[in-house]
């Protein structure tokens, strides 16, 4: 059953289902799902190695380059996904499992599934239809199903860790990221095979640019995050009727399928006409709505979760634990980052470190409070330790002359994150445009 | 742990495993069970146009054929996740000119593909050609041009799935069978 946060009547009171404190990772070993998951990962890993062994034997340099490039490409995505859930961080092992499902299981099982369904489509409808619409019809069904099964497996192994819609998005995105990385490696190797010019890294680099930058932002990471939100909604919102929860699940899975379908569809596949601008516009028209939808969903999920946990700190009414302005800062990622920068401006790197420490301790206390039904008054040792940690970190901050972990009062009216986001979007468009132009000239 | 939860957990995990097995083994079995329709290309030499012939890739389906004259026509094969188009048209010029024409056509039509440097290619029957490759966010591809007396033979291969390698082997074998007047 979902625990209500103390701020009763607020829309986020059912947004989180706190992990019981008694939950231990080792208890998963007693679950049959854990061993079945381990077996699936093992056999899929073997299958993936088998699939890579042939290209590696023929194109060792290209294969190694592809693996290294796309592994490095995954790093910023991983860091971004991990940082999505600042207040209640996910266990790294479970995050790695989600990534491994996408990379090992979903990819290797999608290949025969896609191939068979494409052939069935060609036989039962028409080869012409299969050529045009096959990738749009087949891949979203097979691949989104296989990735969603990964999240179902995570739920079976560690259900208590899926506390909120945000958690579902985190695990879903990681499954998608794993899939995207391995799929891109295979695309790169296909390009090497197509080039038919031996063990050259040129086609790998070209694929890295094309699939990484032109198609990377709105690919599997994004599709699976939506599906993850739907699955997590079904699990977390137990106060709602089964029908409503099932509808939420269906909407999440449908949206994941729909954005994948639109991206794969032949519509606007080659842009709005000849020339780079047409191609760029076509890419943006297909990709931006999906990206905007997921970012909006992420914004809502993050704030609902943050408000839920912070409401426990609000209830303490203890400015030594968190002042009102700190509570406001803690709920917003860009304000937290600004508070650390502001501290660095005033007290150097130790100031930044002290504020970060306080923020993390406050987040930890909030999460522990949500897991303790009787709160601090019951003399709970874990809670007292968490509160003491906050007080110690505050005293370290005070020694540096920092009274509050808040954002600068002189910060620009438009949040830095918005400016950076617009800048990054323009830079990306410029990069895509440059890429399209230079490739046309090739 | 409560016993019924253990069994429920087992049932859930087995359901996931079952779904995976259906995708990996069930769908291919279903595909094999559905009879191949008349669109399937028999493994025997087919004329495209103007006396240019090819042996279709094994297991390929013919998606489209067109004939706009005795010396002009095309055929589109579907081989798993790959499509293989072969077009024949009257042409007066040399091989580099034919190659350049197809390359320009691909670049202007597709907009953002990359073409690698061209390489020479020869079919089993002795037709000489030039080939190169391209790649895009959603697909990779290869094209080739061969010359026969008064004719240009254009071949384009594209695919959008991660497991194209098997299909490519079959397509390469098919390209090697392109012949004129045999």
TrEMBL record, chain A:
UniProt keyword list: Membrane, Transmembrane, Transmembrane helix
The UniProt record lists the keyword Transferase: no
Any GO molecular function: peptidase activity
Domain of life of the organism encoding this protein: Bacteria
Residue intervals passing through the bilayer: 31-49, 61-81, 93-112, 132-158, 170-189, 209-235, 242-263, 283-301, 417-436
InterPro entries, sorted: PrsW
Protein name listed in UniProt: PrsW family intramembrane metalloprotease
Originating species: Rhizocola hellebori
TrEMBL record, chain B:
Protein name, per record: Uncharacterized protein
Organism of this sequence: Rhizocola hellebori
